[in-house]
From TrEMBL:
Taxonomy, superkingdom: Eukaryota
PROSITE patterns in alphabetical order: ARFGAP, C2
Residue stretches making up the C2 domain: 141-274
Native source species: Acrasis kona
PANTHER family in UniProt: ADP-RIBOSYLATION FACTOR GTPASE-ACTIVATING PROTEIN AGD12
Keyword terms, alphabetized: GTPase activation, Metal-binding, Zinc, Zinc-finger
Gene3D superfamilies: Arf GTPase activating protein (1.10.220.150), C2 domain (2.60.40.150)
Name recorded for this polypeptide: Stromal membrane-associated protein
């Protein structure tokens, strides 16, 4: 019989599933099937055994069925970290980030907010800071809101001060392009705010939100509100991208649009209605209301 330490010796299991601590994991979640450091295992234990059952690799006895149930970190993260927002980086192994560690692990396993079957990742900005210096992701050709994004960060915090925020009420889409073999699509929308009209990868840190997915329709009705912050209402740009959600394969692009806020003379608590025709696609329009809220006195 394969023992638990042999499974732990696999490269993907030799670091913590949640914080990637380089110390060999000494704990595991038997029902989830992942290997954990002592700090992350403590957070798992606090979630309750109905979510995660923690066992020591060296101090506890393991049954054959428990060993066989260990799927491994690679498989677990393919499920539980399938759609992690860039605002939620993995926690550091340092004890200094235990508040953020708890927040991340709770979102990952209790709320299942990042999992492949979670259709909405419109999470708020994390309450606690992950005390680290994050590297800027490399900007790749053809990047967009859904893929690689550029962030202005210092130790996980925006380097800019926000003037206010937009409340976006995403109302509906009409005549969207078909991306599935059934002639329908499963559309959702990303919104992101940045300073550059021509570069949707240059976005303010954390200012990306995603709508819910509407299944099997070309005429979705969202009626969903989301908030994104603005640095300068006279120069910032609101970028929009529509995508088709796919459970098995990669999601399909359905069109985009950008709105220069200065063109619409937005002022505090003033609402404007938009019906925009999607660009770089064959058909489709998106309707929404946008209201600007000033944070200045």
């Amino acid at each position: 019989m394969t023992d638990i330490l042999t499974i732990r010796s696999q490269p993907s299991n030799s670091v913590c599933c949640d914080c990637e601590s380089k110390d060999l994991p000494t704990w595991a979640s038997t029902n989830i099937g992942c290997f954990l450091c002592i700090q992350c295992s403590g957070v798992h234990r606090s979630l309750g055994t109905h979510i995660s059952k923690i066992k020591s690799l060296t101090l506890d006895l393991w049954t054959e069925s428990e060993v066989a149930s260990m799927k491994g970190n690679l498989f677990v993260n393919q499920v539980y970290e399938a759609n992690v927002p860039v605002t939620y980086p993995k926690p550091l192994s340092s004890p200094d980030v235990n508040d953020y560690r708890k927040e991340f692990i709770k979102a990952k396993y209790e709320l299942k907010a990042f999992s492949c079957d979670k259709l909405s990742t419109s999470l708020p900005t994390p309450k606690f800071k992950n005390v680290c210096k994050e590297e800027k992701p490399e900007k790749k050709k053809g990047s967009n809101l859904r893929k690689t994004m550029k962030f202005n960060r210092v130790e996980g915090r925006p380097t800019t001060e926000f003037e206010g925020y937009l409340t976006i009420k995403l109302k509906c889409g009409r005549n969207l392009p078909s991306r599935d073999i059934n002639g329908k699509s499963d559309p959702y929308v990303f919104f992101g705010v940045g300073p550059d009209e021509n570069d949707s990868t240059n976005l303010y840190a954390g200012q990306v939100v995603k709508s819910e997915v509407q299944k099997k329709t070309l005429n979705p009705d969202w009626n969903q509100e989301m908030n994104v912050c603005v640095v300068n209402v006279d120069s910032d740009v609101l970028h929009l991208e529509c995508w088709d959600w796919d459970k098995i394969t990669y999601d399909d692009f359905m069109g985009n649009y950008h709105i220069r806020l200065k063109d619409h003379n937005l002022r505090h608590n003033q609402q404007s209605s938009f019906e925009v025709n999607l660009e770089n696609t064959e058909s489709g329009s998106i309707s929404m209301d946008i209201r600007f809220h000033s944070l200045k006195n």
